[in-house]
Amino acid sequence: MADFLAAFDARLETYLTQLDDLQERNQKQHAFQPTFWLQNQDFNVAREVFVAAAGAIGHTVTKFSLVYSKTPSKEEGASICEALDKPCEQLLTATNVALFCGAGPSLATEIINDALRLIKSVHDLGKSIEKGDVARVPQLTGRVWEYSTARVSKSNCVASKRSMLQCITMLNSTTEELKEFLAEQNEEDSQAPLDEVEQDDEFAFDSSLSEEERALFESSVKLLSMCAAIMKRGVLTIKKLTISDDQAAFLSWTAKLDVSYTAAQDAVVDFGAALYPPVGVDELSEAVSSLEVSSSAILACLKEQPDLAATEESALLQGEAAFAKQLATMEPSADLVSGFSVWAVPEAATAQELSGIIEEYAERLQTPAFLPHMTVLSGVKAADVTDKLAGLAASLRPLDVEIQTVTIKVKAELRS
Question: Ranges for the Cyclin-D1-binding protein 1-like N-terminal domain (predicted)?
Answer without folding.
Answer: 53-183
